[in-house]
Recover the amino acids of this structure.
């Protein structure tokens, strides 16, 4: 620990901050490795995993559907004026489908779930840390990473692609409704162009991304929760950082994954 | 009575050597930003012994228990518990090891989103004990702490003393041979404190557990040293003479009545990170030391 009797120079302060960040990253990596390794060895906590799947999947269904619906709708509103200029309103379905499946479906869903569940996970685990429940678990011979982290990570990684599928589908529905009401586009016309627009690569992109996003959100939520120090205030701070960090990381990961997947499925 | 779900492999003939201490602290130190809290602490706990740690708030009683359970690592020194060198064990080995000890946390540390029954059943569930047996043993354990009625309550719905008792039931349900009680009477009224001490007596005299007890109430030490739980009459009976086994020949008459002598209770007073005093409860009572007298004065 730094000697506080001397006024620390800016440089040594920055050095300490950097050291702290590196240590945190190291702890995070360790947690990630452990949480994944636990999947392959017993004991496995299926009940906890199912409970988390319900909490994350079923619990987020409503907001994901509503958001998806209106994102689909607004996509049509925004693109249709362009297409109308060229008299190509029939392409609306294609534009909505591509934007939703490749990009907006996964990202918006992930951001919503990050706001809803990364915070929930961090505050739940954080409260358990400050009330010594995590220590009590260790004292009872149970590995908290196995019992608390792995079920959340598994549940999130499994549920997020399903939520994305819901968002995509409802989003297309919203898009169709707006297209029908404003452009008088027929159902057959909209849906056939929408579905035909999607290549295999687009679907892969749309469903590989949420796997990574789910992993990022759940591990960051758990990590922030488990490293809480300093009582209720600490829990509050951890909750905020869990949402902020996981949202930013989702967007960064989205960029790099898009680059990679676009490269892989280039014809 | 509480039954072990399986033989405790850590406590086979190889690990308990008669005459060898069950717990051994050698020059243990630990500190935080504000400085060292424990400064070269050494003590032994023999099998069957009840060691009472007496110390002011902040003297490091909780730290000692957490160190002995491997929940914290010491900065220096060695700790052996049941033949294991705690400092050299991985967290996975420690998890296994901790299944053989009970830990009653100072604040209870009950799982607040589980009912009382689920809290007590936690360790049994971890060991995949069949449902019917879990049910039966949870009832037994809650009966032991006289809280059968609270089975389906959540910790938030209980009083502080009830929470402590649930915590004791949770720690004892698998009948560990070694139990750490961290300040189980702190902040409780004298009557409830006595109830808790009675539970500890019962654990000791009916199940033969070795225990560490942290407290700042010297009465707890007297309660443990001067009383024992009588199996036949099912109540606490006086056991004057600090229960030092077979020390005083006059005690033989009780053996005739079929009652066992209580196992030894020793008091260890902590001060400034070191052992300030170690001896029987009786010797604390008769000591002329000013610091020890302060504890006695507060007991009146
Ligand atoms: N995790 C920690 N971080 C920093 N300091 C700590 C930590 N745990 C304990 N301490 C410090 O160690 C000292 C001893 O703490 P401990 O909890 O063992 O006291 P105690 O004897 O159990 O007191 P009480 O009777 O109040 O429970 C205290 O001064 C405390 O500030
Ligand atoms: Mg304490």
């Amino acid at each position: 620990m730094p000697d506080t009797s001397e006024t620390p120079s800016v440089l040594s302060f920055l050095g300490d901050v950097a050291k702290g960040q590196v240590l945190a990253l190291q702890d995070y990596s360790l947690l990630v490795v452990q949480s994944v390794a636990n999947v392959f060895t017993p004991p496995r906590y299926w009940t906890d995993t199912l409970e988390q799947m319900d909490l994350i999947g079923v619990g987020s269904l409503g907001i994901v559907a509503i958001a998806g619906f209106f994102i689909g709708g607004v996509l049509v509103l925004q693109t249709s004026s362009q297409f109308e200029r060229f008299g190509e309103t029939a392409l609306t379905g294609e534009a909505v489908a591509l934007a939703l499946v490749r990009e907006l479906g996964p990202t918006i869903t992930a951001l919503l779930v990050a706001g809803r569940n990364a915070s929930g996970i961090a505050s739940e685990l954080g409260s358990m840390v400050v009330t010594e429940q995590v220590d009590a678990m260790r004292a009872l011979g149970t590995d908290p990473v196995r019992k608390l982290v792995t079920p959340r990570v598994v549940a999130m990684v499994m549920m997020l692609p399903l939520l994305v599928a819901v968002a995509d589908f409802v989003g297309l529905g919203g898009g169709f409704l707006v297209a029908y009401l404003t452009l008088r586009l027929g159902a057959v016309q909209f849906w056939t162009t929408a579905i035909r627009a999607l290549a295999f690569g687009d679907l892969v992109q749309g469903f590989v991304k949420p796997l990574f996003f789910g992993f990022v959100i759940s591990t960051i939520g758990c990590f922030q929760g488990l490293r809480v120090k300093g009582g209720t205030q600490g829990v509050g701070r951890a909750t905020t950082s869990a949402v902020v960090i996981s949202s930013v990381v989702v967007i960064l990961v989205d960029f790099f994954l898009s680059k990679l997947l676009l490269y892989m499925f280039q014809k | 009575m509480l039954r072990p779900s399986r033989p405790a492999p850590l406590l086979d003939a190889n690990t308990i050597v008669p005459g060898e201490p069950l717990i051994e602290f050698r020059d243990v130190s630990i500190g935080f930003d504000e400085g060292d809290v424990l400064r070269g602490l050494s003590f032994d706990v023999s099998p069957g012994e009840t060691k009472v740690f007496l110390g002011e708030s902040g003297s490091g009683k909780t730290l000692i228990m957490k160190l002995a359970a491997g929940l914290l690592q010491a900065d220096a020194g060695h700790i052996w518990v049941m033949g294991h060198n705690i400092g050299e064990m991985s967290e996975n080995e420690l998890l296994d090891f901790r299944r053989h000890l009970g830990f009653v946390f100072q604040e209870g540390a009950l799982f607040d989103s589980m009912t009382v029954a689920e809290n007590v059943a936690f360790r049994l569930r971890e060991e995949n004990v069949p449902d019917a047996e879990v049910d039966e043993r949870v009832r037994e354990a809650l009966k032991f702490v006289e809280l059968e009625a609270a089975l389906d309550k959540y910790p938030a719905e209980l009083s502080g003393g009830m929470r402590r008792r649930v915590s004791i039931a949770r720690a004892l349900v698998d009948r560990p041979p070694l139990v750490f009680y961290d300040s189980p009477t702190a902040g409780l009224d004298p009557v409830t404190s006595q109830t808790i001490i009675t539970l500890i007596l019962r654990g000791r005299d009916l199940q033969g557990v070795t225990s560490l007890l942290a407290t700042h109430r010297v009465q707890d030490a007297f309660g443990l040293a001067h009383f024992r739980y009588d199996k036949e009459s099912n109540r606490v009976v006086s056991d004057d003479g600090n229960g030092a086994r077979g020390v005083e020949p006059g005690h033989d008459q009780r053996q005739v009545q079929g009652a066992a002598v209580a196992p030894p209770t020793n008091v260890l007073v902590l001060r400034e990170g070191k052992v300030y005093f170690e001896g029987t409860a009786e010797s604390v009572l008769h000591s002329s030391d000013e610091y020890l007298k302060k504890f006695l004065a507060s007991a009146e």
Q: What stands out?
A: Chain A touches chain B through 14 residues (CB under 8 Å).
